[in-house]
Write a structure and sequence with these properties.
Belongs to the ORC5 family. By secondary structure, the chain is of the alpha/beta class. It is built from 18 helices and eight strands.
Length: about 425
């Protein structure tokens, strides 16, 4: 018996929709009940949120395309200004009910112009008798635009006096959107994370035709057993499943094992999955490089990506500045005299460490330091004399831009800015060599 039922849509269409959105039937059923029939006025604005890769974008696109509802789908990261966003909505609306290209470029500078042009577009496309859906993906970017954009979208149905619903898709909760001046509250809908059973079902649907479904399901079960505790991202797991399946099949291809010999198959794939654990989310090497490395039985550490130390080239004094910043972040101030002065006098052999200082500084994280302390340590670790020129200060700004240092204070403070070193000990060791 199908889970999706609605009198306004054919049963065959709903059955096809259900097969395309596995493990999201309850969310789709909720959306169908909210949308109602094509000609009915629905809720003015809907806010859908959930963690990354929880199916928000895919479900909305599949639902609107399968039911052939008039809609506009815009990514707010790609259209990062209000003008680009409004113009893109109007351009897509011109081709909403037909496949013809827009007749002319749309110019829209303000939201008042958008309301006027939106009414014209709805009339020209003959969409007055059905709901038009405007879906704004990555909607958290709206908070960076003008203050009137988000409240206006939430009550667009009232402003245009047309049958339109705005759907906001985001990874953050509504409380972080709500303006301090107040706004129309949207209907919120939560997409929970996929459970391990859901991931097993979704990933098993992509089995290659030359192998049985049970064989591929056993492979997915092994993959999730290794990666589920560190990675719940469906897209990343799909990538890992496609990347390592050929290695899992090797004993079967060579005739050394059959599809039911799970022990031999696990022994063959185990070392390669352990190597893949080192590059989850990082993408330090490409898929072709990874496959080549598997054939050669090499170590993924042999191929370094953009984040590797070998690819970081800094000017001469920037390296010393970074080393000095690391020393200033992880060494207490009271040790500077002992470490960086040649004639620091006699030091008493007393246990002056406080209780909270007995913990490793690397576990406590970097501490902020002032600019003058950074320069003082720099002068002590560089062999030749360094003049405090504009070149040195510009290199500090460059390190902040590269996010190797982070600024804690501000330039307008009386005691000057304070910084933190954000790189690891291995990074500093590589530079120090």
């Amino acid at each position: 018996m199908p889970n999706l039922e609605h009198p306004a849509y054919p049963a065959a269409t709903l059955l096809r929709l259900e097969s395309m959105v596995p493990c999201r039937e309850s969310q789709v059923s909720m959306l169908l009940s909210i949308f109602g029939e094509r000609q009915q006025f629905t809720f003015p604005s809907i806010f859908i949120y959930g963690h990354t890769s929880s199916g928000k974008t895919y479900v909305m696109q599949t639902l609107l395309n399968t039911l052939q509802l008039p809609h506009v789908f815009v990514n707010c990261v790609e259209h990062f200004t209000s003008r680009l966003l409004l113009e893109e909505i109007l351009i897509q609306l011109q081709t909403c009910s037909s496949e013809t290209a827009p007749t002319s470029r749309v110019l829209c500078d303000t939201f008042n112009d958008f309301v006027r042009l939106f009414k014209q577009a709805v009339t020209s496309q003959d969409l007055q008798d059905q709901t038009v859906y405007i879906v704004l993906d990555r909607a958290e970017q709206l908070r960076e635009m003008e203050a009137n954009i988000l409240p206006a979208f939430l009550r667009l149905q009232e402003l245009t006096d047309r049958n339109v619903t705005v759907v906001l898709l985001s990874e953050i909760v509504w409380e972080l959107f709500r303006p301090s001046t107040g706004c129309f509250e949207p209907l919120t809908l939560y997409f929970p994370d996929y459970s391990i059973g859901h991931l097993q079902k979704i990933l098993s649907n992509n089995h290659p035709p030359e192998y049985s479904a049970d064989f591929y399901a056993a492979y997915i079960n092994i993959l999730l057993g290794v990666f589920y505790m560190v990675c719940r991202d469906l897209k990343e797991l799909q990538h890992l499943a496609a990347l390592n399946f050929s290695k899992y099949c090797e004993p079967v291809v060579r005739g050394e094992a059959n599809e039911r010999d799970t022990r031999k198959l696990w022994k063959n794939i185990e070392p390669h999955l352990k190597k893949a654990m080192q590059t989850v989310y990082l993408r330090e090497i490409s898929s072709s490089q990874w496959e080549r490395l598997q054939q050669d039985d090499g170590d993924p550490g042999q191929l370094k990506g953009l984040s590797a130390h070998a690819h970081v080239e800094l000017p001469y004094y920037s390296k010393f500045l970074l080393i000095a910043a690391y020393l200033a972040s992880y060494n207490p101030v009271r040790t500077d005299k002992r470490f960086f002065l040649k004639h620091h006098g006699k030091i008493k052999k007393t246990n002056f460490m406080k209780k909270h200082e007995k913990t490793s500084n690397h576990l406590l994280g970097p501490k902020p330091f002032p600019l003058d302390r950074l320069l003082a340590i720099l002068y002590s670790i560089v062999d030749n004399r360094v003049a405090p020129t504009a070149n040195i200060f510009s290199q500090i700004s460059s390190l902040v831009t590269l996010q190797l240092l982070s600024m804690v204070g501000h330039n307008d403070q009386l005691d000057g800015p304070r910084y933190k070193c954000t790189v690891s000990l291995d990074f500093i060791r590589a530079i120090a060599r």
